Amino acid sequence: MTLHYPTIADCVGNTPLVRLQRLPGTTSNTLLVKLEGNNPAGSVKDRPALSMITRAELRGEIRPGDTLIEATSGNTGIALAMAAAIKGYELILIMPDNMSAERKAAMTAYGAELVLVSREDGMEGARDLAESLQRGGRGKVLDQFANGDNPEAHYTGTGPEIWRQTQGQITHFISSMGTTGTIMGVSRYLKEQSAEVQIVGLQPMEGAAIPGIRRWPQEYLPKIYQAERVDRIIDMAQREAEDVMRRLAREEGIFCGVSSGGSVAAMLRLSQEVENAVMVAIICDRGDRYLSTGVYDTPDT
Fold it and tell me: What is the CATH number of domain 45-141?
């Protein structure tokens, strides 16, 4: 008998959904979080990274040995670096220089070439440079912000998993919004199952710097974003997101990044408004890629 052993790519997705035990307090609501840090490269972005490369291959747009280019704030870059290593592509990643040292090191560990732009140029500048390199013939931009294979990964994967794991009882889905791929794909799937499911997006307040999520200027709004798929948007303060992130580690044993803390903070707010709800928030990644920033050193007050 021939045994079938999975490859690392087979391990993307099917992440755990777990119940929060202490943070919700006394409530009739069930608060659940999906642990996307359990993906092989450590974040929810493993899903669209593999999807964008695999589906582009199937369409004949790329083949192993080609050079791929992407602007990233971190997690997508790490995930793409893993996927490129699996499939045999060269990869150029462009990132603002204020992202954490762990993120930069993880990308280069997988063999990617890293190009940094200034904090002032930010993700907008990184996206512009990626397009410039493509025009110069350096490689192909996958463009997670406009690539339908990004939300498709969540429509075919994350959404069905959540519906199955909650046995169709989910009432609220909460997700940070960066490229918006996660919330677009999951919303599309869940709304097809039940129009009553509330889709809640999270963006930073003006002036807040929460890694991985943005308030996009209109001209840079991701092309995959469809406003009608989000029922409510919550503005999140950086301090609140960081406080809940630390509480998740210390009170729930869930070690994650700032945007995940923000999503759970939003879920805790929503829980004060309703009863007998089943809420799911996305834990985007793991906290170990933020340690050098000192965000876990700040005591709760």
Answer: 3.40.50.1100
* pLDDT tops 80 at residue 301: no
Catalytic residue among 34, 45, 87, 104: 45
Q: What would the mean pLDDT of 119-148 be, rounded to a whole number?
A: 93
| 8 A C-beta contact, residue 165 and residue 194 | no
| Mean pLDDT, residues 195-216 taken together | 87
| In the chain, ranges of CATH 3.40.50.1100 domains | 8-43+157-293, 45-141
The binding site for pyridoxal 5'-phosphate comprises: 75, 178-182, 259
Mean pLDDT, rounded, for 251-257: 97
Q: Is 259 a catalytic residue?
A: yes
Is residue 249's pLDDT more than 70?
Answer: yes
The amino acid at 204: P
* CA 15 – CA 11 distance, rounded (Å): 9
Question: Catalytic annotation on 45?
Answer: yes
For residue 188, the one-letter residue type is R
The pLDDT, as a whole number, for residue 201 is: 96
Structure confidence at residue 196 (pLDDT) = 97
Quickly name the fold that domain 8-43+157-293 has: Rossmann fold (3.40.50)
User: Binding site, residues?
Assistant: 75, 178-182, 259
237 pLDDT higher than 80: yes
pLDDT of res. 123: 83
Beta-strand ranges (E) seen in the chain are: 17-19, 30-35, 67-71, 90-96, 113-117, 140-141, 172-176, 198-204, 232-236, 278-283
> One of 175, 259, 260, 271 is an active-site residue; which one?
259
Please state, in angstroms and rounded to a whole number, the distance separating the CA atoms of residues 45 and 175: 13
